[in-house]
Amino acid sequence: MDWGGRKMAHAIVIIPGILGWLFIYLGANVTSLIIGRLLSGFTGGASVCLGAVVIGEYSSPKNRGTYLNLKTASVCLGGMMIHILGNFCHWRTVALLSLFPYIISLIITFTWPESPAWLVSRKEFDKSEQAFYWLRGHSDEAEKELYELIKAQKDKPTVIKNSSFNEKVVDFLKKFTRKDFVKPVVIIALSGLLIETSCRHIFPAYASQIIGEVTGNKSQSFYYTLAIDIIITTSAIFSSVLVKMYKRRTLLFVTGFSALFVLFSVCTYLYLVSKAIISNNYTWIPISLFVLYFIFANLGCTPIPLALLGEVLPLAHRGSGSALAGLVMSIAILVALKITPYLLESVKVYGTFTVFGSAMGLTLVVMYFILPETKDRTLQEIEDYFNYGRFKNDEKLNKDECEEDVKMKMIS
């Protein structure tokens, strides 16, 4: 991403996915299927972080949140379509059909201009200006954003391009001493933890076992999975509208703590049922509460953390930061999926969701104190926040207000 640009990186990342689905489609043995799954999984994981960075750099501050949330909605929609196709079509047919989005995406990538932010980081200011205006037009806001971006990079020393491997390793390790790297990475790590503790991946993966324990019926696993897919996708699409209307923090914490309240309510209900304190004849109650929980969780706790990947990383750290974020999120998914069967076996459904809910609540509390508001902010403004601990525009606004107060006192 840092070496060849966003455009080249995106094209390169797609190719393993194409090869992966071809391996699966043509696979004659288990080894071929495993290789195909590894290749397609690499593309899936890498494109989550890279795609967020690309959208963040290419889109305007006013539309950035909507586009980033629509990216999450698109992933949810794709997952739902695969589940539907997998139920009605042969798996080779599904693999063949899955190739088309990759091929279309690869073709579209070659129509992009290079990222203006990446060009600026390479001191290619003329090319950056052309690409920026091609993407954003010549509005006053766009010109101001480009000016601030170029000014910030001109003030920085030129990085030596031909560094040795050891020098690059040392340079990467030095990043962990810089607050403009550490704090965004911590926020993204917490974001990945929030996604998994809100059960974004574990519930669909173990839907049959979870719903089966609640209702006593495990024969309708496809319909359970489909219902979850519809709820998640619809909520993510609706979130793309809400993020335009409300601040990121407001949407995240209101929906997050609401989801937490509903989750603990259903855990309490299931615990009382397990102790025969209340009857198990009303299975629609926990099912309805789970539906409400997933609506709340997928309005904020899933799309906004993924959107932060494209917003909080400073330009100098987007390559290494995105790679580290992808690693952290992959580990979080792996751990969540591996421990869930043991939790379901030992502490049942109510205990499992109590554990995840407690971790989710703790993560939300920590993020409440460290997450800045990014709505309608340029990426340069967000970067300045991590460098200086405040938004420069807010400082200027406060200064103007003080000057206005002094003038009013002098007049009076």
TrEMBL record:
UniProt keywords, alphabetically: Membrane, Transmembrane, Transmembrane helix
Membrane topology classification: Multi-pass membrane protein
Pfam families: Sugar_tr
Listed InterPro entries: MFS_dom (IPR020846), MFS_sugar_transport-like (IPR005828), MFS_trans_sf (IPR036259), MFS_Trehalose_Transporter (IPR050549)
Gene Ontology, cellular component aspect: membrane
Keyword Repeat: no
Transmembrane segment boundaries: 9-28, 34-56, 68-88, 94-113, 181-203, 223-243, 250-272, 284-309, 321-344, 350-371
Localization per Swiss-Prot or TrEMBL: Membrane
GO molecular function: transmembrane transporter activity
Gene3D superfamilies assigned to the protein according to its UniProt record, in alphabetical order: MFS general substrate transporter like domains
Residues annotated as domain Major facilitator superfamily (MFS) profile: 1-375
Protein's recorded name: Major facilitator superfamily (MFS) profile domain-containing protein
